[in-house]
Amino acid sequence: MPNTASAKKRVRQTEERNARNRWRRTRVKDAVKAFNTAVLAGDSKAAAEAYNKVASLMDKFSHTPTMHKNTAARRKSRLAKRLAGITAKK
After folding, report:
1. Count of other CB atoms within 10 angstroms of residue 62
2. Which of 4, 12, 19, 79 is the most buried (most CB within 10 A)?
3. What DSSP element (H or E) covers 81?
4. What pTM, to 2 d.p., does this model score?
5. CATH code for the domain in which residue 83 is found
6. 51: domain range?
7. What is the pLDDT of residues 19-76, one digit of tens each?
8. What own/partner pairs with CB < 8 Å and gap ≥ 24 does 79-86 have?
């Protein structure tokens, strides 16, 4: 247990940051799930819309400590590759 005032503040800050980061990661995961569902359904229009949402979230969160910018870029690239795969089939 923290004894000093600064240690107590650190605990509060850590809890807030963890909650904020967990919320951000959950939003990205939910958006990726929506994208994957659209891809599996073969709906290229819905997949493109879902991809735009995922890319926007990842760009936004890559400027925070939640996600590194290279991680966001790598994930967006992989999703774009999947989107291009179903778009080419049509």
Report:
1. 17
2. 79
3. helix 69-89
4. 0.86
5. 1.20.58.110
6. 5-89
7. 999 999 999 999 999 999 999 999 999 999 999 999 999 999 999 999 999 999 999 9
8. 79/32, 79/35, 79/51, 79/54, 79/55, 80/51, 80/55, 82/39, 83/35, 83/39, 83/44, 83/47, 83/48, 83/51, 86/39, 86/42, 86/44, 86/47
The number of distinct structural domains making up the chain is 1
Amino acid at 14: T
Residue 36 token pair: 């994957």
Which tokens belong to 13? 């800050």
| CA 64/CA 47 separation, integer angstroms | 26
Residues in the chain: 90
